[in-house]
Design a protein that fits this description.
Layout (H helix, E strand, L loop, with lengths): L2 H40 L1
């Protein structure tokens, strides 16, 4: 196995991790916005 297999695997792990964190952050943002909206509706 040559070094390109490891390079491709490293890119795949990096892109997968970045995508996962992006999805997590987006969902956390939506939850926080929904909580803020509920707080503003109570007043």
């Amino acid at each position: 196995m040559n070094q390109w297999s490891f390079v491709i695997a490293a890119y795949a792990v990096t892109l997968g991790g970045t995508g996962g964190m992006l999805a997590w952050a987006w969902l956390a943002l939506r939850r926080a916005e929904a909580r803020a909206e509920r707080l503003s509706e109570r007043r």
